[in-house]
Each structure stands twice: as structure tokens, then as C-alpha cells.
What we know:
- The complex is a heterodimer of chains A (406) and B (247).
- Chain A is an alpha+beta fold.
- Chain A has two domains: 3-52 and 273-404, no CATH class; 83-259, no CATH class.
- Chain A is built from 13 helices and ten strands.
- Chain A has helices spanning 3-15, 18-56, 85-94, 127-133, 145-149, 159-165, 210-218, 236-250, 266-309, 311-319, 324-361, 369-395, 399-404; strands spanning 60-65, 98-113, 116-125, 137-140, 154-157, 176-179, 182-190, 206-209, 225-230, 261-265.
- With 247 residues, chain B is of the alpha/beta class.
- Chain B has a single domain (6-241), classed as 3-Layer(aba) Sandwich (Rossmann fold), CATH 3.40.50.300.
- Chain B has nine helices and ten strands.
- Chain B has helices at 48-55, 78-88, 104-108, 110-113, 120-133, 149-161, 179-194, 206-209, 235-241; strands at residues 4-17, 20-33, 37-42, 63-68, 71-72, 89-92, 167-171, 198-202, 214-219, 222-228.
- Chain B has a six-stranded mixed sheet with strand order 6-7-8-3-9-10, sandwiched between helices. In chain B, strands 2-1-4-5 form a four-stranded antiparallel sheet, with helices on one face.
- The radius of gyration of chain B is 18 Å and the shape is globular.
- The interface between A and B is medium-sized, with 24 and 27 residues.
- The complex binds adenosine-5'-triphosphate and magnesium ion.
- Magnesium ion binds next to α1 of chain B.
Amino acid sequence: MNFANLFRIALKALSNNKFRGFLTMLGIIIGVGSVITMLAIGQGSKKSIQAEISEMGSNMIMISPGAERRGGVRMSAEDMQTLKVKDFEDILNNCKYITLASPTVNASGQAVYGANNTPTSVTGVTRDYLDIRGYKVKDGDIFSDQDIHTSAKVCVVGKTVVDELFPDGESPVGKVIRFGSIPLRIVGVLESKGTNSMGQDQDNLMFAPYTTVMKRIQAVTYLQGITCSALSEEYTDKAIEEITAVLRDNHKLKDDAADDFNIRSQQELSSMMTSTSDMMSTLLAAVAAISLIVGGIGIMNIMYVSVTERTREIGLRMSIGAKSRDILAQFLIEATLLSVVGGLIGVLAGIIAAYVVKVLLSYPIAISTGSIILSFAVCTVIGIFFGWYPARKASNLDPIEALRYE
Amino acid sequence: MEKEVIRLENIKRDFKVGSEVVHALRGISFSITEGEFVTIMGTSGSGKSTLLNTLGCLDTPTSGEYYLDGVSVRSMNKDQRATLRNRKIGFVFQNYNLLAKTTAIENVELPLLYNPKYSKKERQEMAVEALKAVGLGDRLEHKSNQMSGGQMQRVAIARALVNNPAVILADEATGNLDTRTSFEVLVLFQKLHSEGRTIIFVTHNPEIASYSTRTITLRDGKVTSDEYNHNVLDAAEALSALPVEKD
Lengths: 406, 247
Ligand SMILES: Nc1ncnc2c1ncn2[C@@H]1O[C@H](COP(=O)(O)OP(=O)(O)OP(=O)(O)O)[C@@H](O)[C@H]1O
Ligand SMILES: [Mg+2]
């Protein structure tokens, strides 16, 4: 018996029961569809995170105060005050693998101009910070070293702040706004960066000299962080070693004492963020894979019922010359057809669903051919695996007993 | 001498039912030569169907030897027997056993599907030919549930003919039919016989025996009589002599 004939027989048997076939396939359709959609969403967010991180520059190093956070252990206020201006100056001057460095001090509050106000935050930095993070000044200029030296009341503002405070389109450069009770003169406006992959607005911010934020706004003597840039990506590890040495020396830590600061490189951050999204997509795919298995069991169930229902047909086929392996092949082909056609519809449904997610939720998606090929392979395997037992049962029937079956 | 198609040597068939053993066949021996039309008679439970299943290579005897076309069936494995059924035997079942929702043509070409020798076109042609031979040339595309009992029986006969078998086995092929339709089927079998085919026909009806060339009677799994009929009646004549039903 040749394959084409068996294929024709299986197709005929399925077309005799189209609706049942469709219901059986539904499990596979939902399974494959969700695998494709979930992977598309997972891959999409991973890709956009990666793109964003590489845009920020791959040689960024971030230093934060306090020991590495572990579990739910709360850190005291004192632990968070370990970074000082001297630390920043020493890193910038003494670390030869560091090219740029800026302290960061953050304050949130209301920015007010005339009758308009908007909630925003001001970050105290040096000019290096804008280079490290890839911010560019569009109108006007950034504050000078002199401004930092004198804690000048000046600032650079993001597009969102401008839009809120100057709705009539007048030029903000030179205008004096208030942040809390402190008047700040706008010296420059930043180029827009839009929203990031987390949906955060990257334009709702202001930069001011760190000395201004420390002394005039926050009235603190410590830094919230230091952001630096290594010579290049391959020197980040060396740079981290240098920084660690400088800070431990400055903080007079004994050899056996733990670091009272925390250094993270861009690479670590990137792998941390992508690993989170990797884990998410693995989880989502696992849930989807379970529904695929449930779909497979559905096929097994229907094939089993079908074998019982068609016992007499099987007996007849055997009595007119079908061999056991012909019957086995016929039912295996039926099961595989169910799962592969289901898989095909599932792939289409998954792609459509992914685009719906993209259009309606403006979520980044990336459909990989790998996931489509994988789904097909899995479907074929599921069809053969779950079809095997019922097909085997059919092929082992005795022709006379099968013909007598009521 | 005419060619021997079937030879049975002391065939026994036992069935185990629970702890009891049913002796369905208790040592049957006979041979059938090419071109015979044999009726097998006997009371219910005498072992006719069991014998026919054995002859059709569907069932294996508990002991004894069965030679079909000179080949010992006992020495064959399952697949070889399946091939044998496919090439040398045409089986007409008592209850037709047609595939549901399937056209006459598809039902008839079924045995040919399991023979890789035939192309799709050949299968079609042979099926149409067999259906014409049983007088159903105008019912090719009718599905099994759109036909009368007599028509279904004839489709079943066409299916048994289509592979040009050495032997046609029929189990109560007229059992479910009215007198007129029974005679129509009988005419068909006589026609096949006149074309030189070997036919073995199981029946309850002693009248039918007079239309065959030989009658074997079974009782309790044994042959009680085996007679040649020297005065074979013509079924076509009998059919025309039947009173015409008025509608
Ligand atoms: N599969 C089986 N299992 C157990 N016993 C069986 C089986 N098949 C047949 N028998 C027994 O074998 C004996 C012969 O049965 P068989 O069907 O051959 O009779 P038969 O002559 O065809 O009867 P009928 O004219 O009623 O069809 C019966 O007693 C029956 O009970
Ligand atoms: Mg019987």
C-alpha cells in the first residue's frame, strides 16, 4: 500500500467528520497560537530593551551607595549616605580607565512658570552626564563649569516640561521658572528621547548643576550616585576594579569589611534586564506548551473514540487485504494531519494575535521563524506521539472480532 | 484433470468461552476444483460461518491443513494472509459491511487501494466494470445510505469481484432479501459461475442449493453429506416465472 493512498483514506475519514475534527484541532490551534504570540511578545520586549541599552552606551558604569541589596533587608539612612563629592572627584581624576564621570542627586517636585505647573524631577549632574546618557541640548546651551562651581541657579529642561510650562510656544531659553521655592533660569532645552520600553517618558526631567541641587534644593552633603563611562567596553572590568580601590581607600574600609557601595556596569544591567524578559518569555512559553500538550491529549482522546467507533470499518479493511501496518499508518496520518493542520491555523492565529497586540497596545513584537518551525515540529511529534496508542490499538484488532463488533 | 483450488484436511476449530471449549469445526476434509458452485448448508450453529472464515483466510484453524491454490495457509504470517485475501479471495458479507457515507465506486475500489499495482485510473475503471457487472452502472455515485438492501448487497458483490479473485465466498448473501431480489442475486452468481469463477455460497435456504453444482451439509461441525447436483436449475427462468408484483 503506498503512502498517497493511505493519505487519501485518512483525508476522507477526516472530511467525514469535519466539525469534530475542527473541535479536536482547536486545542492545538490555541496551544500553537499562544506559543507564537507569547514568544513574539517576549522576543519583542527583549529586542527593544537591548536596542535601548546599546543606545545608552555599552561602557556605562553606575555606582550607588550602600552594600548590595539582598532580600528584604532594609538599609538604614546612614548606609545610603556613603558617597561623597570627594569620591566623585577622585574617580574622575585618578582612575585612568574612566573618561567621563558625573555625580547624581535627584529631587522631585513641582516646576512652575506663571500660571502653569507640572510635576517633574531635577537631577543634579555635571556636563559629562549628558554625554554618558546620550542627551543632547537642542536650544541654548548646557550650564558651564563655572555654574557648577558657583552653584548657579540654572537648569536644562526636557521637552515634556517645556510643553507643560510654555504651552503657547514661546522660547523657554532665558526664562526663569521655579522648582519648589528655588528660581532656576533655563539655559538650554533637551532634544526629545520619547518613551522607553517600560513606557516611561524620558523627556519629563530637568538637569541642574549637582552643587545647586545639593546645596540649594536638597540641602544634603552626600551623593545619590555616580555615573561614569569607561574608556571602552572591554575596560569596564578594569575600571570597576579601580573604582573599588579608590572608594575603599576613601571610605577607610578594613580588608575584611564589605563594600559600602555598589557598582554595576552597563553589561550587567543589560543582561539583568534581558534575563528578566527571557525568564518571562520562558514562563509564558511553558504555559503555552502545556496547552499544546492538552491539545495533544484531545487528539488522542478523539482518535481513541474514532478507533472504537470504526472497529467494523477496520475489520472490513483488514478482511479485504489491509495489513496491520496499513491500519497503523492510516490512523497515525489522521492524527498527524489533525495536529499539523491545527498547527498551521495556530501559527496564523498566533501571528495575527501578535499584530493585534502590536497595534492595539503598541507593544513591541518580534516573530521569529525559529518559533514557527519549532511549533510545526512539535505538532508533528504530538500527532505521532498521541496518535500512536490509538493507532496501535486499531492495527492489533483481529479482523473477525472487529467485524462482529456492535 | 481440473485444477484443485481448495483442499481441507481434517480442519478443527475450537473456541474457548470462559472455562468451556466450543468445538465449532470437528475435522472437516474436502476439496473444491476450479469452476465449482458449492452451497454450504446446515442448521444454525453448525459451523458454516466458521468454515467460511477459515476458507477466507480470516480465521486460522486450531489444527488441520488448508491449501489454497496449492499453498498451505497455516505456514503464512499475518501480512501474507492479508495479501492473499487481497489478491485471491472475494468475500461477500451477510450484512454487506459497506463503508458509510461512501459512494458505490469508492466502496468497490477499496480492495484495489491495498494493492500498489493499480493506478487511480485503473482502480476507477475496474470498479465501474464490476458495478456494471452487477447491474449498478447507473448508481456509481450513490452513497451506501442512499441505496436499497438489494443494491447494497450487489455493491458488496461487486467489491468481492473487483480484484478478480480465484474464489468468491458469500455468507448468506440472500439472507436479508425478498424472494425476487434473492433470485436476482442468484442470477448474478450463476452468471459469474458461467464465466468460470469458483463460488462458495453459505445459505439456510434448501431451495437455493438446487441452483448450484454441489451441496455440502454441515452438522455440529462435521460434514454430513456432500452431493453433486446433476440437474442445475436456471435462476433466470425461475425469476421470470415469479408473479410480477403490481404496484
Ligand atoms: N468467536 C467465537 N467465540 C466463541 N464461540 C464461537 C465463536 N464463533 C463461533 N462460535 C461458536 O461456534 C459454533 C459455530 O458458529 P458459526 O457462526 O460458525 O455457526 P453458523 O453455522 O454460521 O450459524 P448461523 O447459521 O446461525 O450463522 C457456534 O456454536 C458458536 O457459538
Ligand atoms: Mg453464520
